[in-house]
């Protein structure tokens, strides 16, 4: 589905970024993994190469405007285009604590980080995509009604902010043939740290909140992202792809 496409994934060494990168490479894309820690990036890259994919890595701070712009320029110089951009870096959120007990700094950190990094990486991609008059920008997270008993801190607000930005970008970039889409998962048990206190209970709560009796998996995320970035979704923009197994109900 993605032959000839060049995809940049910020946070490509993480579980979600790695799953998306693997799916993109499997579908023929040339993948550029960007992140701040070399070890995880190289681990994902090695898995992709083992299966015959094409991948490159770069150390990039996705909250640094100059670094983001220089990396996007390097990708285009090396590959000829920047066709897909997805940002799944960590936002420094504090979870497991009720809002009433949180500090304002802990609550606002993921909001500020999410807005800043999504702005910078989307802007860098848009500069090239507007000249190409094509491209796809993918958002991960979306928003939905909070699940009782899950304390997400500022993460939910960060997701809402990114959704607002996605709507604005869709409107501004549509005339250039650029599509902007959000993937909403409702939570992925596989991404919970094994040593996280209460991880089992949180995973169970994610599953119980679904209609299908199972939560989304990393494979689900990768498969849907590959579809969204491909021409099979050519008429889709300004929308969310709901892969939450019914946990997040669209209205």
TrEMBL record:
InterPro entries: NAD(P)-bd_dom_sf (IPR036291), SDR_fam (IPR002347). Keywords: Oxidoreductase. CDD domains: SDR_c (cd05233). GO terms for molecular function: oxidoreductase activity. SUPFAM superfamilies: NAD(P)-binding Rossmann-fold domains. Gene3D superfamilies: NAD(P)-binding Rossmann-like Domain. Belongs to the short-chain dehydrogenases/reductases (SDR) family. This is SDR family oxidoreductase. It comes from Arthrobacter yangruifuii.
């Amino acid at each position: 589905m993605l032959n000839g496409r060049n995809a940049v994934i910020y946070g490509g060494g993480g579980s979600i970024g790695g799953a998306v990168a693997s799916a993109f490479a499997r579908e023929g894309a040339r993948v550029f993994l960007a992140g701040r820690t070399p070890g995880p990036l190289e681990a994902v890259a090695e898995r992709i190469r083992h299966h015959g994919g094409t991948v490159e890595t770069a150390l990039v701070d996705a909250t640094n405007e100059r670094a983001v712009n220089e990396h996007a320029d390097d990708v285009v110089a090396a590959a000829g285009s920047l066709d897909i951009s997805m940002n799944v870096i960590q936002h420094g959120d504090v979870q497991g604590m009720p809002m009433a007990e949180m500090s304002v700094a802990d609550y606002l950190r993921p909001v500020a980080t999410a807005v800043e990094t999504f702005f910078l990486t989307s802007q860098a991609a848009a500069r090239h995509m507007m000249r190409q008059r094509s491209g796809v920008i993918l958002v991960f997270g979306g928003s939905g009604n909070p699940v009782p008993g899950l304390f997400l801190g500022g993460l939910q607000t960060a997701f809402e902010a990114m959704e607002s930005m996605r709507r604005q970008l869709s409107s501004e970039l549509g005339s250039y043939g650029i599509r902007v889409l959000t993937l909403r998962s409702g939570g992925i048990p596989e991404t919970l740290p094994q040593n996280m206190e209460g991880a089992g209970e949180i995973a169970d709560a994610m599953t119980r909140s679904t209609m299908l009796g199972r939560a989304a998996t990393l494979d689900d995320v990768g498969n849907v992202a590959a579809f969204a970035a491909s021409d099979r979704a050519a008429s889709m923009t300004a929308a969310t792809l709901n892969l939450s197994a019914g946990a997040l109900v669209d209205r």
